[in-house]
Amino acid sequence: MSKQTTVITPDQLNAQFDYCDKIAAYWQNQNITPAAYVETYGCQQNEADSEKIRGYLAQCGYRIIREAEGADVVVMNTCAIREHAEQRVFGNLGALTHTKRRHPAQKIFLCGCMAGETKVSDRIKKSYPYVDGVFSTHHLWQFPEILWNVLSKGKRQFYVEDEAGSIAEGIPQVRDHTLKAWVSIMYGCNNFCTYCIVPYVRGRERSRRKEDILAECREVIAGGAREITLLGQNVNSYGKDLDEQIDFADLLAEIAELEGDFLIRFMTSHPKDASEKLFDTMAKYPKIAKQLHLPFQSGSSRVLKAMNRHYDRETYLKKVNYAKSVMPDLVLTSDVIVGFPGETEEEFEETISLIQAVHYDSLFTFIFSPRTGTPAASMDDPTPKEEKSRRFDKLCAVQNEISVQIHESYVGKTLRCLVDGKDKDQLTARTEGGRLVRFSGCDSLIGTYQNLKITGCTTWSLTGQMQDAECSVQN
Ligand code: SAH
Ligand code: SF4
Ligand code: F3S
């Protein structure tokens, strides 16, 4: 890979802001306040990208609405991680023919990870004539230009050339939440796990400069953020491409030293690069949540090798044990794939035994989904679908039992939680480890930290009671 990371210059970005002005004037001249809808699929990286798309749209004069009906612009920010994710997008794209029929001036865009796949952009070109523009993640910074071209030329736009990726600082953002902020610290991935499409659609690893990250953290803290989640496909390789001598643990420490009452989370950590220094740093700073998402993918060293993960079962377990030894209250979560090509029953059982050994708080479980263009898609895969489903069900059952056991062990404890919203008639809060707690209280508590006594649990959440009597009943 000899492609270079490009830094988008202030002049290039200003040219985009000029397009924003043109678009705003286009609508003002017609006396219309246009509306836009952005639909997000996939991971937090896409959530963060959608905040930028909304930021650009707001700068172009669009009001952001919550449905496609009646929107002048619809943007589908897509995920390519599994077949099922893509099918959902194509299904929902089909439904947009109806909203566009009722509002023919509607402009429809598809972006995100699927837009980085040639097979997808070709299919849109051929079979989805009502989609006005397609742009891959590498071209997100050019969205105003793409939108202006569609509005002014009335021609479909495809910005999908394959690039290593760039870094653009200064794109405006309309954030989804004030309490919780995503802050990307790096983009792309160099790991090429054999099952994964991400490196092909998001380009090579590139780290943002520390100053830019710290400035964004200060800004969101000043704006009321109580939780900052640092994002990257493999945050542990942060800094490797920078001239400055800095690693992820150093960055974490600097953020943890910023003023304010907030917690830092991060995802995702690749086990091969997770260091003792990282765990020691987490243990040292109260502002770093004692929560670790450390995807292991498989409990079998042979399968891990075939996945190109660069660690084996023993090294993984050693790292987890070290992390637990320096953070006894650590909340551990992970990703796991069942049915990787050639996975035997014994190898699957190694995954089960690893789960039992580690005792994760929760797991994100997936059945292997072949992605065109990745090495695993052409590996021999003799295991029938039904057998993979059986393994998947067993995995979930084993994990659910563990989750319940861990949740039960919370009962009776009092935990400091951030009250983050309301669901039906109960307030919701998150423990430092990210566990969901439901309790009764008044709405004015949203946005505050509260000590909650855990009184009960289910597989997925905890129930709690306020410790400080004031305002403990629902209003
Ligand atoms: N960068 C992160 C993972 C991002 S993708 C990491 O390496 O930890 C999120 C999860 O989706 C992965 O951890 C993996 O478990 C799952 N996944 C990725 N590609 C997949 C595929 N082709 N089939 C099934 N699951 C997959
Ligand atoms: Fe995909 Fe592996 Fe990169 Fe994660 S580390 S995004 S699984 S290639
Ligand atoms: Fe999906 Fe892209 Fe994230 S493929 S999981 S949205 S990086």
Secondary-structure content class: alpha/beta
Backbone shape: globular
- Major sheet: 6 strands, parallel
Spans where pLDDT lies below 50 across 5 or more residues: none
Which small compounds were modeled alongside the protein?
S-adenosyl-L-homocysteine, iron/sulfur cluster, FE3-S4 cluster
Oligomer: single chain
Overall pLDDT, averaged?
95
Beginning-to-end CA distance, first to last residue: 59 Å
The amount of helix comes to 25-40%
Strand order of the largest sheet: 3-2-4-5-6-7
Give the helix tally.
Answer: 13
**Spatial extent as radius of gyration:** 23 Å
Strand portion, in percent? 15-25%
The count of β-strands is: 21
3D architecture notes:
The chain has 475 residues and is α/β, with parallel strands linked by helices. The chain has helices at 10-28, 44-59, 83-102, 118-127, 143-153, 198-202, 210-222, 248-256, 276-284, 301-306, 313-326, 345-358, 385-410, and strands at residues 6-7, 35-40, 63-64, 73-78, 107-112, 133-135, 157-159, 166-167, 180-184, 186-187, 206-207, 227-231, 263-267, 291-293, 331-338, 362-367, 414-423, 426-431, 436-439, 449-457, 462-466. Strands 3-2-4-5-6-7 form a six-stranded parallel β-sheet, sandwiched between helices. The radius of gyration is 23 Å and the shape is globular. Bound molecules: S-adenosyl-L-homocysteine, iron/sulfur cluster (SF4) and FE3-S4 cluster. FE3-S4 cluster binds at residues 42-43, 45-46, 79-81, 113, 197-198, 202. Residues 81-82, 195-196, 233-234, 268, 270, 295, 297, 335, 337, 366, 368-369, 371 line the site of S-adenosyl-L-homocysteine (SAH).
